[in-house]
């Protein structure tokens, strides 16, 4: 007997005749509401996408396929009752302690759930001890340290944490992370909400949630988190691991400043000059610098001198300069005829094809 109660809502944008290049070709046919009370969980999933396609060649008696992606696993059956039975089976394996996992951590093509028990996030890899921490940043660091120490991953960033949305049961990568002295990186996840998308920053006992609004959500989350941490100098909080699509969206919210920050960097026994443009976002100054993985570190400060000092401290920590005073401020003029947003996108990272907000299939 199924423990799962399912109701469906038709998607008005679904078109069965949509071609592969049609904007509606990937629209789900249905949205399923899943009531998990039968599993002992006080949770209702409001919008699980159910996709549909007719087979070009029948597979026995199967002429069509209904597909649902649930927490990263693709489930396919020839009719809705069989799909519901499979969902029931998988959810029964996924729900523990009367709750769904909040996150999954992934290494390669395998993933394991992370649950919240009281005030702790806990997870376990087979053959390893139980890992627990108050925040997802701390837990990810503990897991990555153990995986690297035991030779299962070559680098710490090979272990990835994904958020499981209660809206659609899809997995979402962090859009970026926030870093401040004395604390583990805090990831920021773009998660769907009713009618919109929000940027969720799981800091402390209560996550910060701000409207995504393209790149504006990154700026709003930075300000809110700096306030929550009671930082006397907001420049001590930086944005890390920002990819090209997110930077492009953020650049649309910035205006050019007539300064740049310059330094002579030491790299591999050689020296080279690096000049980084300064941007403005309201009352704040920003500078962005590519890291060794090809993503961006963005520094944000209320004053230009504080921004220069933050970049200097960053370069000293990386061993690129001897002292923070090696960073200087220079005036520059914007290139004639080139829109600022285009300059901001092209000068630091090449644009890639991934959208800003997308679940992992």
* Number of separate strands: 21
Figure out the total of helices. Answer: 6
Strand order of the largest sheet: 15-14-13-12-16-20-19-18-17-21
The secondary-structure class comes to alpha+beta
How much helix is in the residues? 10-25%
SSE topology string: EEEEEHEEEEHEEEEEEHEHEEEEHEH
The whole-number mean of residue pLDDT values reads 88
Distance between the termini: 29 Å
C-alpha Rg (nearest Å): 23 Å
Low-confidence stretches: 336-354
Strand content: 35-45%
Gross geometry:
globular
The major sheet is characterized as:
10 strands, antiparallel
Quick overview:
This protein has helices spanning 80-94, 136-149, 216-228, 244-251, 304-317, 340-346; strands spanning 5-10, 30-35, 44-59, 62-70, 73-77, 103-107, 110-117, 120-124, 130-133, 159-164, 171-172, 176-179, 186-193, 196-201, 208-211, 238-242, 255-267, 270-281, 284-290, 296-301, 328-331. With 361 residues, it is of the alpha+beta class.
């Amino acid at each position: 007997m199924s423990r799962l109660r399912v109701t469906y809502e038709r998607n008005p944008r679904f078109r069965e005749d949509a071609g592969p290049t049609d904007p509606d070709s990937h629209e789900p046919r249905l949205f399923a509401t899943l009531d998990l009370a039968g599993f002992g969980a006080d949770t209702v999933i409001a919008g699980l996408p159910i996709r549909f396609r007719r087979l070009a060649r029948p597979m026995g008696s199967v002429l069509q396929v209904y597909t649902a992606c649930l927490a990263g696993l693709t489930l396919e059956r020839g009719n809705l009752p069989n799909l519901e039975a499979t969902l029931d089976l998988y959810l029964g394996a996924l729900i523990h302690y009367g709750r769904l996992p909040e996150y999954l951590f992934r290494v390669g093509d395998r993933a394991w759930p992370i649950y919240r028990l009281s005030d702790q996030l806990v997870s376990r890899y087979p053959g390893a001890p139980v890992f627990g921490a108050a925040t997802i940043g701390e837990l990810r660091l503990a897991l990555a340290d153990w995986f690297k120490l035991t030779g299962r991953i070559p680098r710490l960033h090979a272990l990835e944490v994904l958020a499981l949305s209660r809206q659609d049961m899809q997995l979402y990568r962090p859009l970026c992370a926030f870093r401040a002295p004395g604390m583990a990186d805090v990831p920021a996840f773009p998660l769907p909400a009713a009618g919109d998308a929000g940027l969720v920053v799981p800091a402390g006992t209560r996550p910060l949630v701000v409207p995504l609004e393209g790149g504006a959500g990154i700026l709003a989350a930075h300000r809110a988190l700096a306030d929550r941490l009671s930082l006397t100098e907001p420049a001590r909080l930086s944005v890390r691991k920002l990819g090209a699509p997110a930077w492009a969206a953020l650049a649309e919210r910035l205006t050019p400043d007539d300064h740049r920050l310059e330094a002579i960097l030491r790299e591999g026994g050689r020296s080279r000059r690096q000049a980084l443009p300064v941007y403005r976002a309201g009352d704040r100054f920003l500078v962005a610098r590519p890291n060794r993985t090809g993503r961006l570190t963005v520094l944000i400060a209320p004053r230009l001198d504080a921004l220069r000092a933050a970049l200097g401290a960053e370069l000293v920590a990386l061993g690129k300069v001897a002292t923070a005073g090696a960073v200087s401020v220079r005036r520059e003029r914007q290139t004639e005829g080139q829109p600022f947003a285009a300059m901001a996108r092209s000068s630091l990272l090449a644009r890639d094809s991934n959208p800003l907000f997308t679940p992992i299939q």
